From TrEMBL:
Biased composition (Basic and acidic residues): 25-47
Name of this protein: CBF1-interacting co-repressor CIR N-terminal domain-containing protein
InterPro entries: CIR_N_dom, LENG1-like
Lineage per the UniProt record: Eukaryota, Fungi, Dikarya, Ascomycota, Pezizomycotina
Pro residues composition bias: residue spans: 56-66
Region: Disordered, residue numbers: 25-99, 181-204
CBF1-interacting co-repressor CIR N-terminal domain boundaries: 10-46
Length: 235
C-alpha cells in the first residue's frame, strides 16, 4: 500500500476524523464526570443539613450508567437462550423441587438483607444525637454517659494501683537519686534532715535530736567564751 493513501483510510487511528471523534468522546466523558461529582456534592450537602436538623437524611441515588454505554457490555444473568442461568435444575430434582429450593434461598437472602438493614438503622439511630435537651436548649456535645464515666474512674484507680505496685517492686532493686539520703521516699517529698524534731511516746526527744542539741550547746559555749576573751583583751 502506498503510504500517502494511509491517512485517507477510515480505520486509521491518526486520521483527522478519528482524532476529532476521540477528542469529542474525551470531552463528553469529562463533562459526565463533572456532572456526577456536582450531583454527589449536592446529595452530601443535603444529607449533612438533614443530619444537623435531626431529620432522616435522604437516600443516596444509584449512579446512572453513561448514555454511551451499551447494554450488551454489561454482564447479564441470562444465557444466550434467554433463560436464567441461576435457575437450573440439579441432578435428580424436578421443577417443583427446583422452585422450592430457589424459594428457600431467596428467603434466606431476604432475611440476611433485613438483618443487615436493621443493624445499619440501629447504628444510625445511635449516631444521630439530638441537638436539644429536655428543656429545649441547644447542646453541641452530647451529655456524658454515667456508665462510661464510672468505668473510666475504675480504670484510673486500677491503673494507679498497678503503677504503685510496679514502683514498689522496682524499689527493691532500683536506686534513685531521691534515695541517696538512706531513706526511700518519693521525689516530691522533703528530705529526712528537713523534718521537725519529733518526740517519742515517752515525751523524750530522739537520740539524733539530743545529739544535735548538745552540739549546739557546745558551739554556743565556745562562741560565748571567745566573745568574753575578746572583751577582756580590749579592756
Amino acid at each position: 500500500m502506498v503510504l500517502h493513501l494511509l491517512g485517507k483510510k477510515s480505520w486509521n487511528v491518526y486520521n483527522k476524523d478519528n482524532i476529532d471523534r476521540v477528542r469529542r468522546d474525551e470531552a463528553a466523558a469529562q463533562a459526565r464526570e463533572e456532572e456526577a461529582k456536582r450531583r454527589m456534592d449536592q446529595e452530601d450537602a443535603a444529607r449533612r443539613i438533614a443530619i444537623l436538623r435531626n431529620e432522616v437524611p435522604p437516600p443516596l441515588t444509584a449512579p446512572s450508567s453513561p448514555p454511551g454505554e451499551n447494554a450488551a457490555a454489561r454482564p447479564s444473568r441470562y444465557g444466550h437462550d434467554g433463560r436464567d442461568r441461576k435457575r437450573r435444575r440439579l441432578r435428580g430434582e424436578d421443577d417443583t423441587d427446583r422452585d422450592m429450593r430457589l424459594a428457600r434461598e431467596d428467603a434466606a437472602l431476604g432475611e440476611a438483607a433485613r438483618e443487615k438493614l436493621s443493624h445499619i438503622e440501629g447504628k444510625r439511630h445511635e449516631d444521630n444525637v439530638a441537638l436539644t435537651d429536655h428543656a429545649g436548649h441547644i447542646q453541641l456535645f452530647a451529655a456524658p454517659n454515667e456508665r462510661t464515666l464510672l468505668a473510666d474512674s475504675r480504670n484510673a484507680e486500677a491503673e494507679a494501683e498497678k503503677a504503685k505496685k510496679a514502683r514498689e517492686y522496682e524499689d527493691q532493686y532500683t536506686m534513685r537519686f531521691s534515695n541517696a539520703a538512706g531513706c526511700k521516699q518519693s521525689p516530691s517529698s522533703a528530705p529526712c534532715w528537713t523534718k521537725l524534731k519529733k518526740k517519742n511516746d515517752g515525751g523524750r526527744e530522739s537520740v539524733d535530736a539530743n545529739v544535735i542539741t548538745e552540739r549546739e550547746a557546745r558551739v554556743w559555749a565556745a562562741l560565748k567564751a571567745s566573745h568574753l576573751t575578746t572583751i577582756t583583751e580590749t579592756k
